[in-house]
Amino acid sequence: MIEVEVKAKISSFSEMEEKLDSIGATKSKHEFQEDIYFNSPIVDFADTDEALRIRTTKENKDVNIFITYKGPKIDKHSKTRKEIEMGIEDAGKCSDIFEAIGFRKVRAVRKNRQYYTYENFEISLDDIEGLDPYMEIEIALEDGENYTDAQDEIFKLFEKLGVTDGFERTSYLELLENLNITN
Description:
Elements: E1 2-9, H1 13-23, E2 26-39, H2 45-48, E3 51-59, E4 62-70, E5 81-88, H3 91-100, E6 104-118, E7 121-128, E8 134-141, H4 148-160, E9 167-168, H5 172-179
Antiparallel strand pairs: 1-5, 1-8, 1-9, 2-3, 2-6, 3-4, 4-5, 6-7, 7-8
């Protein structure tokens, strides 16, 4: 799968929620996410622009756990990249396996995420521990599909919502690392 994603800093959740409501976006779910990121013993993912994480999501009493690999960004304008994800049963055991074969825990990123759907877009408003609020808009495509049209659509939706700057290609992990905020 190719994840075509653009992220921008926003000034206010309530203001953006009003704008999303005004265009007919539908609030779909709210969840807490904890991402534990790992670095490879072979290459430095910071240098290769890759990511490996274990994500635990909590929505009400539902808990889901995933392993996600994200390949390097494939363009200069967005966070478009190959993404491979699968569900697992136990984050602790998975972490133990990763560490036993040489992967090193980098840090945890924790956020509350409010999801919206609008046409073929998934929109999230993110409240990340240690960072300002952000909004992400993404479209998922099959491998090999042309992503430039999807990217253009995303930027048009940002503009429709009044967001014309504050775009960020850096991951939340990198933003926190740059601030040197500890877990």
